[in-house]
Specification:
globular, 16 helices, four-stranded antiparallel beta sheet, Transferase, Pyrimidine Nucleoside Phosphorylase, Chain A, domain 3, 3 domains, Pyrimidine Nucleoside Phosphorylase, Chain A, domain 2
Length: about 425
């Protein structure tokens, strides 16, 4: 095969064969295809699109470009949950214990945060002693023993995706549906679970800003998962304001613990119960999504999910005492309040602006090499639809660098928009795709 011919074929709107796609993915991963040729093909794909069959074969080629995890040593139907990324999205830390407490084995690999969305691995590392890198044998043993383990994604999972995404990022070819879907699903399919639940965010603080684009992506990923014989369900959820009240690593873990204690924000609690219910259903522990929801709610109210979180933390070297003593988390040394200067209602909180402000407080990374401040972040005291009066505290910025905290406060204040009339409430759950 000839890479020049493949580029020309896609440039002219042709359909790539499975063999051509495999040749490209393997050649680029191994280094025999240079960046300049791969860049040309990515731009041709971006402009001319891929059909469903091409997208499936691209996903499959990237899946098999590295290790494909064998979870057959773990008993039961393993269910994975993936979020496309959002501001304040700490649902894994709530959903995984809820589902595991209901008998669903959760063997999950998660990533680190980059930009304005936080990564689950970073959040877990704010727990003293918690290990996100453990041997495969220990990972599987823990799932069989307590039903839950979450570790960092290894470099050997879908290495083609890492190389291709890095190139997309610098060639203005990120926003193509086939490339996005294959990037997400190649990693999920290589991670070895039997069923996948996808939380596709849409809105200001999401990668997919429009509902239509989020649905298109969700449908495409469900089709890819189903074609690979994985039970796959997508749920389209709102990200026009931050999820919950906490944005930042240790702040979000504390909020997740509060949620499992039954005193979390309403949006986090409801979304977590819905996601856990779908996972319980996908794991064949419930006959319907509603029954799964009811089982998750019982696990929350009984304290079973909170106990499961404690087992999970202890199993990976963390100190379960953090569940009762929040002072064990990394501590901030600087705070700054954002105060309201008018009366009315909170009409909007720009999620992306809050995410970037949190990143600039020290809670996030601009590049993979950046270090993060696990104590830093933003706690929102007001959400969309809340009444406000002059002098009310809208949010508090936390961190250990006064200059960063001040800059973050200035940015976060601009995220708030007010109105005299109470705004219409956005639906948290917009669509479920089976």
């Amino acid at each position: 095969m000839n890479m020049n011919d493949i580029i020309g074929k896609k440039r002219d709107g042709g359909k790539l064969s499975p063999e051509e796609i495999e040749y490209v993915v393997n050649g680029y991963t191994e280094g025999s295809i240079p960046d300049y040729q791969m860049s040309a093909l990515l731009m041709a794909i971006y402009l001319k699109q891929m059909d469903k069959e091409e997208t499936f074969h691209l996903t499959r080629a990237m899946k098999y470009s590295g290790d494909v995890i064998d979870l057959s040593q773990i008993e039961g139907i393993k269910v994975d949950k993936h979020s496309t990324g959002g501001v304040g999205d700490k649902t894994t830390l709530v959903v995984a214990p809820l589902a595991a407490a209901c008998g669903v084995p959760i063997a999950k690999m998660s990533g680190r945060g980059l930009g304005f969305t936080g990564g689950t691995v970073d959040k877990m590392e704010s727990i003293p002693g918690f290990q996100t890198s453990i041997p495969a044998e220990s990972f599987m043993e823990q799932v069989n023993r307590i039903g839950l383990s979450v570790i960092g994604q290894t470099a050997h999972i879908a290495p083609a995706d890492k190389k291709i995404y890095a190139l997309r990022d610098v060639t203005a070819t990120v926003g193509n549906m086939s490339l996005i879907a294959s990037s997400i699903m190649s990693k999920k399919l290589a991670s070895g679970s039997d069923a996948i639940v996808l939380d596709v965010k849409c809105g200001d603080g999401a990668f997919m800003e429009s509902f239509e684009d989020a649905c298109t992506l969700g449908e495409m990923m469900v089709e890819i998962g189903t074609a690979d014989r994985k039970k796959t369900i997508a749920i389209i959820t709102d990200m026009n304001q931050p999820l919950g009240q906490a944005v930042g690593n240790s702040l979000e873990v504390i909020e997740a613990i509060d949620t499992l204690k039954g005193r979390g924000p309403g949006d986090i609690t409801e979304l977590s119960l819905i996601l856990a219910g779908i996972m319980i259903y996908a794991g064949d522990k419930a006959e319907s999504r509603q029954q799964g929801y009811d089982m998750a709610k019982e696990a929350l109210e009984s304290g079973g999910a909170l106990n499961k979180l404690a087992e999970f933390i202890q199993g990976q070297g963390g100190d379960p005492a953090v569940i009762k003593d929040y002072s064990l988390f990394p501590q901030h040394t600087c705070t700054q309040e954002i105060v309201c200067h008018r009366s009315g209602y909170v009409y909007k909180i720009a999620a992306k602006s809050i995410g970037l402000a949190s990143q600039h407080s020290g809670a996030g990374r601009a590049t993979k090499e950046d270090s993060i401040d696990l104590s830093a972040g933003i706690y929102l005291h007001k959400k969309v639809g809340d009444t406000v009066a002059e002098g009310d505290v809208l949010a508090v910025i936390y961190g250990t660098d006064a200059e960063k905290v001040a800059r973050s406060a200035e940015e976060a204040e601009k995220a708030f928009v007010f109105s005299k009339e109470k705004p219409k409430k956005e639906e948290l759950i917009k669509k479920i795709i089976l």
